[in-house]
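[Backbone geometry]
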Amino acid sequence: MRMDAPLWRSHAPSSLRRILIVLLTTALALPLAVSAPAQAGGLDDVFAKLLVKKVKGTNVQKHLDALQAIATANGGTRAAGTPGYDASVDYVANKLRRAGYKVTRQPINFVEGWTENNPPTLNLTAPAKTWVPNEDFFTFEPSPPGDVTAQVQGVDLTLPPTPAPTSDSGCQESDFAGFVPGRIALIQRGTCSFAAKIRNAGRAGAAGIIVFNEGQPGRTDAYPLNIGEWRAGVPMIFADFAVGNELANTPGATVRLKVDATLDLGTNENVIAESRFGDPRNVVMAGAHLDSVPEGPGINDNGSGTAAILEVAEEMAHFPVRHKVRFAFWAAEEIGLLGSDQYVDKLSAAERDRIRVYLNFDMVASPNYANKLYDGDDSDGVGSPAGPPGSAQIEQQLAAFYAARGLPTVGTDFDGRSDYGPFIAVGIPSGGIFTGAEGIKTPEEAALFGGTAGVAYDPCYHQACDNLSNIDATALDLNSDAIADSMARYAFNLRAIPAAAAAPAAATTLKAEAAS
């Protein structure tokens, strides 16, 4: 076929094609402003029912079989940096290209190796003072090497510290509004992740970074710590509270900060597939991470999400859509959301604004499953805050699908452990489905969903036994239908979703990093 021809002309059977021609003609005749609300019998409703009917659990299972075969042929894993991951990329990219999507393989970086060659150096020049490495301070793993002498500048410090951890030093880019590029950023531990502080300091032009412990009992001494973050590109250390407090109270303090380390970066690829039709000013996006942990083939985590959105993408290629549709298969989620984070980081402000909805699907077939929807409105009132404006509506629309089948759902927090994190950090409305990981199923959930209370949702989480036997076929089929329903509705109707939500103040919390 001609590559600029609509996909549905080539792929759809003749009976379905006739229906779609009528549907498309009607859709194009209607102005966007009068699109029918979701679940109301409009074009989005017709499209959703067609797509749900086409998406088959048996086809999703075939993709899982292929991912298992890839892992089996490559040492039992599909982890980032392994041949099993590369083969997974090839499999997904080829399927999407044959379906007719515009497919991009986006390179991303991850830490392949890090070695500290010599202890770090931290010296105050005037008055002269030298702190003891690996006692008063430690190199953050995986710090880039560097040797810099510069003035220290505190970033929104809370000194003396409050009785409870409250410092948000360096958590917002706005904390660096008066920061002088080329200085060494002095940042206090607190309420957001170390990696978030490091990234913000790097964006502000810091020549080196000192994060010191916050100062409450139990939060005074530094220790070795791998934060999985290197992209500030400058030497970075973690210091005792006493060190940071002294520097903060020494006017004009100038220090020498040296890290002697070898940092080796590897490259993997995100797979991004975009429809060749639909309004590019309004993008509806779904994502799932493609990598496993090194210990196993990752069939539930996250072959299940990968296989489900791949089947939805293949069937969705047969239909016309009003809005541009984009599917993402993320690299290196298991070592810090690196694929999704680097993807979002490279988007311009205008490109971010065009992504009206991001739906995340990470573990949708856990053997002791619960149907959990990301809590877009924080109606559960626990844990993490609500998502950006529009996230509540995403949760409601997903819930409506299950309710229409007489099935319950429960909420789950945006806790930063999956690839929605970078999207909500920049204000993109987000949501999705999660069936549980290493957490323990409650008696209340067992009453709602069946299964066994007091047992993990996925007893094989991050283990070699996360294979084809670690899937609940009912959950896989049901949740694949839910994905199809939601993607189809948003492909035609975005009236409930506000445009260009403002980014929240706090940066993303990465899955594989240490807690704040």
Q: What stands out?
A: Confidence is low (pLDDT under 50) at residues 1-17, 25-39, 501-515. The radius of gyration is 24 Å. The first strand starts at residue 102 and ends at 124.
